[in-house]
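User: Let's play a game. I give you a shape written as tokens, and you guess the letters that built it. Ready? Here's round one.
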């Protein structure tokens, strides 16, 4: 169990938003031209790997686990995208102990290749 009041976690997966740990909101008071309007910004960079797509990746893994389709040390996962969903899935799968392979096009930038190599396998 995570203690969200301390903001100290045993795993990066503890940062996932939940009912107990909602994504923070900030009221924007200086940039709104209307006095009677409240505008909020949702701080998605608080997600484990800095993108809203982290939630999609977490839900994909959770669903596959609940249905018994994947287990750590079992099947190797393949993620053929280098977008934010692919990055989030690769990183979360790695944190959960899954083996991941990420085949990529030669057109993918070197920086994304390095991140995927670090968190998964190309």
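Assistant: Ready! My guess for every position:
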């Amino acid at each position: 169990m995570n203690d969200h009041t301390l903001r100290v976690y045993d795993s990066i997966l503890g940062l996932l938003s939940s009912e107990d740990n909602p994504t923070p909101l900030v009221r924007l008071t200086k940039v709104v031209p209307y006095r009677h309007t409240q505008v909020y910004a949702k701080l998605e960079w608080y997600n484990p790997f800095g993108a809203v797509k982290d939630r999609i990746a977490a839900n994909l893994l959770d669903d596959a686990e609940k249905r018994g389709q994947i287990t750590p040390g079992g099947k190797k996962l393949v993620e053929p995208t280098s977008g934010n969903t692919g990055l989030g899935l690769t990183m979360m799968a790695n944190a959960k102990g899954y083996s991941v392979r990420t085949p990529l096009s030669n057109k993918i930038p070197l920086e994304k290749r390095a991140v995927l190599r670090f968190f998964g396998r190309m």
